[in-house]
Design goal:
The chain is of the alpha/beta class. The chain has a single domain, classed as Glutaconate Coenzyme A-transferase (3-Layer(aba) Sandwich). Helix content is about 20%, strand content about 25%. It has an eight-stranded mixed beta sheet, sandwiched between helices. Strand 15 and strand 16 form a beta hairpin. Helix 1 packs across helix 7 and helix 2 crosses helix 7. The two termini are about 20 Å apart.
């Protein structure tokens, strides 16, 4: 077994670690890292989770591999059941969707995300794909795990989203409680630089990758950085989990979410397996 891993593999493992056994978990369209993370969790620490595929709405499928598109028959293979579109939203509305994975071109300190437009909505600089039903689900899903693989760009974690597509803990119109949203909001934010939690509804840096400095991370973050007093290096993933990531995603679709700069990052497990160091 290789003693090295790459950042794309580590991010998928970190995302998988936010899933609890027994949860009903869903991801949105075109989300290869979330897809890999969910199938990894299902096959390791969360065997009793219910995995809902993001475009096929298949429950607990057993794909031979992760395909390049989320709307692929491979992600329906051997599924226990396939939901209708409206059944997923009904499930979430009655509190049955335990976790949803969401990303965004912009994510703010309260976990609001933007996948609609960069710039004003009336005259955007860049028109994005839009959120589909993400706004509804972000209001009703019990928990959310957010992620981005472009933290280092300085454009992903922002002080304020240009357009609010999916709701976090606090919006310009009020808090989740004031707006009557039943979901609990984001609990985790995983990036290629670090891992955040939301202890008081605001992102707090909890763990950092071993090749990233706190100054680098602070410079890439567009809001004032709250840091856990117990900040530590991200625990290394189990080598067996990384081997499973490679088997699940032999086409390496997950790598499409990362820049070339990030894909050059490699790490090596220490002999005791309790830490990782960056390969220079």
């Amino acid at each position: 077994m290789s003693r090295e891993l790459t950042i794309d593999e580590w991010v998928c493992a970190a995302m998988a670690g936010t899933i609890r056994d027994g949860e009903v978990v869903f991801h949105g369209f075109g989300s290869p890292c979330a897809t890999v993370a969910m199938h990894l969790a299902k096959r390791t620490h969360a065997p009793h989770m219910v995995l809902v595929e993001g475009a096929t709405y298949a429950l607990d499928p057993d794909p031979a591999f992760i395909p390049p598109t989320s709307n692929d028959w491979a992600l329906m293979r051997r599924a226990a059941h396939v939901l209708r579109f409206e059944e997923l939203f009904d499930l979430a509305a009655r509190g049955g969707l335990d976790r949803m994975f969401l990303s965004g071109a912009q994510i703010d300190a309260y976990g609001n995300t933007n996948v609609t437009a960069i710039g004003s909505l009336e005259a955007p600089k860049v028109k994005l794909g839009g959120g589909g039903g993400g706004c509804n689900l972000s209001a009703t899903a019990q928990r959310m795990t957010l992620w981005t693989t472009h933290h280092r760009s300085g454009r992903a974690l922002v002080g304020r989203c240009d357009v609010l597509t999916d709701v976090g803990h606090v919006t310009p119109e009020g808090t989740r409680e004031e707006l009557g949203f039943p979901g609990r909001g984001p609990g985790w934010l995983v990036t290629e630089l670090g891992v955040f939690d939301f202890p008081d509804g605001r992102a707090r840096l909890r763990q950092i990758y071993p090749d990233v400095s706190l100054d680098e991370l602070r410079a890439a973050t567009g809001f004032e950085l709250d840091v856990d007093p117990g900040l530590r290096a991200l625990p290394p993933p189990d080598p067996a989990a990384i081997a499973l990531v490679r088997r699940l995603d032999p086409l390496r679709v997950r790598r499409r979410e990362f820049s070339e700069q990030e894909l050059n990052r490699r790490f090596r497990w220490a002999d005791d397996g309790r830490s990782c160091t960056a390969c220079l």
